[in-house]
Amino acid sequence: MEEIGGRKDNYISYLKKFSFQYPQVIMLILIFGLFSSLAGSWFLSVQNLINVLRQTSLLYILAIGQTFVILTAGIDLSIGGVLSVSSCICAILLSQKLPISFAMTIALMIGTLFGLANGVIVAKIGIHPFIVTYSMMWISKGAAYVILGGDVLYGFPPSFRFLGAGQILGIPVPIIWAGIIFFMCYVLLVQTRFGRALYGVGANAESARLVGINVSKINVIAYGISGVLASLGGLLYISRLNSAEPAIGELFLLETIAAVIIGGTPFNGGEGGIERTLIGVFVIVLIVNGMNILGIASFWQDLVLGVIIIAGTLINEYVRKRVYRWW
Amino acid sequence: MYKTTPRAVVFESLGILLRKGSPALFGLVLLASLFSYATPYFLSFANFLTILLQSSILLMVALGMNLVLVSGGIDLSLGALLGLGGVITVLLCHGGTAVVISVIAGVGIVSVFGLANGLLIARTGLPPFIVTFGTMGIAQSLALGLSKGSSLPGVPALIRYIGEGRCIGIPVPVWIALGITFLVHLLLSNSCFGPHIYGIGANEQSAILSGINVKKSKIKVYFLAALLAGIGGLITIGRMNSAHPTVGIGMEFEAIAAAVIGGTSLFGGIGGVPGTMAGVLVIGVLRNGLDLMMIPGTWQISIIGVIILGSVSGDVILRKR
After folding, report:
1. Strands annotated E in A126-260
2. May I ask the CATH architecture of the domain A50-326?
3. Cβ contacts (< 8 Å) between A146 and chain B: which residues?
4. Would you list the domain boundaries of chain A?
5. Which of A95, A173, B82, B162 is the most exposed place for a label (fewest CB within 10 A)?
6. pLDDT: which is higher, B261 or B180
7. Interchain proximity B140–A121, CB inside 8 Å
């Protein structure tokens, strides 16, 4: 008797513990349930769910980079601008009939350079990441407009379009990209010394330095990863849209930051991870997708996103305090 | 006995200028002389007034941002609130409400947003970045939704006077900006509220221990910042003779840049009104000079980014030496 009662208690306390440690998962389930009941048949169709996964994978690639930076207690506001400038450069090179691998390499290098520049200025000169990456956002956005001059380039070769719009065995290629990048970054964060050092720098840069970690190197690499992932996301995006223009990066900044925060990686750094960000990305993509199906005008969607950012953080904070008190 | 030569005086005053923490003033002088050399249209009284007029709206937002930054916070919603205040005021006027009441309602609703920011930040302890990031989304979407995404032309004469009238030959917005700057300066330097927010920004824990009502002061700071943004929104619709929902996008960042160029620390506890004014003028002179030199807007975006980054880096490097 006692044993069964004990087991039941354990089961309930495990559920309690889980919901208090991962309130985001509960939030995700609630949102999924809400939209399933409101917009049932179309929302739950295979077509739409694959569409959700495709949007998730693109936003997730960008949000992984943002997570790396936020884990170091920084922030990268230049993601949208870097995305624009590198995809515009790639589009121009492709329109000159240059090989795809060459165009992509150049675009990825540009993105990496912007990211590394962010990192070097943050780490070596010691300016607040907010100011550095914000200025870099302006610089890269301006560069994208200067390069393309307000034009829209469209019509890319089929083999380039395959990267963002194609399918392998019925699975959209962007999902495979996101899977590969998630795997690589997860191993990098969890299994390597670099990953441990990244968490250490985010939690307390001064003690990380005293332990012998090269803090500025870690910072530079984190911003570099964010830059290269932003430009990769941009390439996949223009490949799916089949067109490129300087304004394509505007939307992504708010969504990546919201995804990281809702997922449970706080701005203070040193805590969280990219697997949590995946939940945050799902929450955002499902909300936007559900609102689109329900026919809510795009003007009002930011309002919902704003409320969710504040409410999500409130719940996360509240729950964390409770967890510390109870367990 | 010291011998005072003109050269020594010049060097000494230059040294004081650099040491006394006014790189913004230094940059202002540098930029002004550069533009006076580069274009013949820069150095005139009319253009001087134009720069002041163009800077007055940013100054409203930057003064509020400076208060928030000094208290150790940040307010990303100010730009969106500026747009929202204008949209609400014009919508109410179009609906037949008396001008004065719609002005009060527009600025009032914006201030309520500031109050909400302050309450959330002070009561729940959430990071200001996230709270105001959320309110930015909410305010932006309200402005777009209420105006259905288009600009609303036609503003009553009284508000137009606020935006583009003149009084003793000087534009009304400049008078308003000067008056409010003076008031904020008094608030920071001649009231007990000023030292309180410096104390909170420098070290919140010791501010609590020395008996400052930290929560109340924080709520006041965000309220004041939003109020100033609302007044900025009023000037904006008066100048443009229409309310545009997206007019404030990016202005919060420009305000942060202006405050930081003016010597305000992003970590709180340091910053003043004169510095912020100089920082706003640096951005204003830059915009104006680049316009006069016929440099296209796309290039300007990049150039301003480079200059903000350069000036902040220079400041940090100089301070380390």
Report:
1. 153-154, 167-168, 171-172, 243-244
2. Orthogonal Bundle (1.10)
3. 298-299, 302
4. 50-326
5. A95
6. B180
7. no
